[in-house]
Amino acid sequence: MLKNHFSQIDTLKNSKSFGFLPSSEEVFCYTISNAAGMECDVINFGATISALRIPLKNGSKVDVVLGFETIDNYLNSFDLPSAPYLGAIVGRYAGRINQAKFELNSKVISLNKNHGEHNLHGGNEGFSKAYWKVIALTDTSITLQYISRDNEENFPGELHTEITYTVTDKNELKVQMKATSTEDTIVNLTQHSYFNLDGHSEDIISQKLFVNAEKLLKVTTENIPTGELLEPASTPYDYTYEHDCPTLIDTTFVLHNTAAVSASLYSFKNNLKMSVYTNQPAVHVYVGGNCFHQIKGKENAEYHPLSGICFETQNFPDAPNHKHFPNAILRKGETYQHRTTFKFENLDL
């Protein structure tokens, strides 16, 4: 059986077996933490965050992300009526690509269609189902690597991707992504955790959402961007001021200022705030996590359509097909750099 032992000592230090893939590769769960007691569990299937425990003022901890307790549940979740991608890294291209095709260097590239006539979250397999190699591990940080072969899911170029998760002494979870390609290609990665500051087994409807957006993308009935940008105030999704989380949202917000806070979530129950910072031009906000009564979450939780909220920091969906959207092309010799921070604060009453 193949194992992910880059170092026997480090592997035993802060990891445990999480089961085996059908390929017989062993999946491990690694725990990184800070001195304050914040803990993040990462499995090397999909470079997935499976738990994120935040210390509260009363001395307890709350697990603020949805996840599963077995590798079989993660595998089976991709067969649900709508795969939730719980906690996974999404790539090569997060979001939808219209008609599963785009033009690059005067050549039309046809991708696999896995969402009707479109390509979603990288295709049939994608990075969320990949076996990632752990290449660095400390008490507070883990780096995982995946090498996507040339023409995987019909994307050109062999793509070398590294994801680093770091827990800081300020109760931040820092996510750093970088990638290089042997050929010109397109890249748009995101981290797909579902957050719930009341705890992963609750719902998000009483939590407060803010998004620092100047525009949002207009989309078709199939959620494909039309190319138009809308004022938030002209839509049901004006979160330029903090108010209750929506019960239904699947929307890309154009960020107002990437040097400032991009979005935030607040729980009155735990008096806990999460602030999101990123260098990406957009954040796609999605409420969900539904497992359709077919798979149980951690601690026997029943995940439903209001279980969590995603902050998918990324480029615009379908950007390769809109010249006025931010560039999504990664040229040979260049490095893709994506940085996102989730900061947690216990607020005073």
Question: What are the salient characteristics of this protein?
Answer:
single chain; 349 residues; mainly beta; 9-stranded antiparallel beta sheet; 6-stranded antiparallel beta sheet; 28 strands; disordered N terminus
Descriptive report:
This protein has 349 residues and is mainly beta. Helices cover 4% and strands 42% of the residues. The longest helix has 7 residues, at 71-77. The radius of gyration is 19 Å and the shape is globular.
Fold topology:
Blueprint: H1 8-13, E1 15-20, E2 26-33, E3 39-43, E4 48-55, E5 61-63, H2 71-77, E6 89-90, E7 96-97, E8 101-104, E9 107-110, E10 119-120, E11 133-137, E12 141-148, E13 159-167, E14 172-181, E15 185-186, E16 190-191, E17 194-195, E18 208-211, E19 213-219, E20 225-230, E21 243-244, E22 250-255, E23 263-267, E24 272-278, E25 282-288, E26 308-314, E27 329-330, E28 336-346
Antiparallel strand pairs: 1-2, 2-3, 3-4, 4-5, 6-16, 7-10, 8-9, 11-12, 12-13, 13-14, 14-28, 15-27, 17-26, 18-21, 18-23, 19-20, 19-22, 22-25, 23-24, 24-28, 25-26
